[in-house]
Amino acid sequence: MNVQNPEQLKPGEARCPGPSTRDLILRDGWEVPAELVTESYEFLGDEDIPYARYTSKEFFELEMRKLWPKAWQWACREEVIPEVGDYHVYDIGPYSILVTRVASDEIKAFVNSCLHRGTQLRPSDSTGSVQHFRCPFHGWTWNLDGSLKEIPCRWDFPKVTDEAFRLPEVKVARWGGFVWINMDENAGPLEEWLEVLPKHFANWPLENRYTAVHVQKVLPANWKATQEAFAEAYHVLETHSQALYTASDANAQYDVFGERTTRFIHTVGIPSPHLTEPVTEEDILKRMRGGQGAMDIPEGGTARSVVADHLRSALSEAYGVDLTETSPSELMDSIQYHCPSSEHLAQISAWYGGGSASSWG
């Protein structure tokens, strides 16, 4: 911990007094994956970010032209399209991508647009199952693999050839049960884009998970402001003050892995360092349980360990899995990985007229 005079510290060295996130996780006494307690902090600068990055229509349009068409982005989970003919439409800005399973172990993605008049083949943000893709305007039809199947009054289109009128494809890759797309035909492989994620998530194979609940909302905000709001715990003290007994807020950990990947770890069941009055483990447990059901804390135990034991048992029974070796941190803590395109954002910043790359870390 650093409690010296801030003037004696180098930029980025100051932090909240108290145990680190790594200390708190290890204090549980459980064996955890090495990646979970790895610390990879890097000071990325503290320059002001111009308002225009969040408010400028011109900058937003640059992102739509230069960022999203070149970034790997996950379009859906594989279980959303489990059978041949199942499809999902992924939309980002003005782009609409049609992702479909064309064989038991083959997924393709196409521009969601009829090659005749540009009508969407399937509605935006829709999911369903079809035998082929038929334009709802004039009936031009394509097979699941993107090959041209049928044109009404084909005799009236002598210049149309089957090969030239295949649906334009975009790159597809899969990892962790996610289906990823990239509109840039020259994009590098997804494995390079993901950096440390495959190695870290070898401990938590996401391909063996499924989506239990999906919540989708449209927020009246720039996408960067929205993402950044969920990538820090600084707001907990004011926004979620009711959680100060159960959330360590300022003692969160922030890691930087490579050019794109960052991580944020926020421990649960540990009181905020901002609390001034003494807090007992019983106080913490009561608030974590929301006053529901009595639980005893064994001598020398913690509210965090008691709730973790309860979750371990309840989740094991509910999902038929063995969680006996799963640590409290893996069960309870907020562990968030972010894989944005900092390199493209930095490039856009240069095109737009300045701003350091570190502003986009």
Report what the structure shows.
The C terminus is likely disordered. With 361 residues, the protein is α+β, with helices and mostly antiparallel strands. The chain folds into two domains: 237 residues, no CATH class; 114 residues, Rieske Iron-sulfur Protein, CATH 2.102.10.10. It is 23% helix and 18% strand. β3 and β4 form a beta hairpin. The longest helix is centred in the last third of the chain and has 17 residues.
Which features does this protein show?
13 strands, 11 helices, seven-stranded antiparallel sheet, three-stranded antiparallel sheet, alpha+beta, Rieske Iron-sulfur Protein
List the helices and strands and how they pair.
Layout lengths: L20 H7 L24 H4 L1 H11 L5 E5 L8 E7 L2 E9 L2 E6 L15 E3 L3 E2 L6 E2 L5 E3 L18 E7 L2 E5 L7 H5 L2 H4 L22 H7 L6 H4 L13 E5 L3 E6 L14 H9 L13 H17 L8 H5 L1 E5 L3 H11 L9
Antiparallel strand pairs: 1-10, 2-3, 2-5, 3-4, 4-9, 6-7, 7-8, 9-10, 11-12, 12-13
Helix pairs in contact: 3-11, 8-9
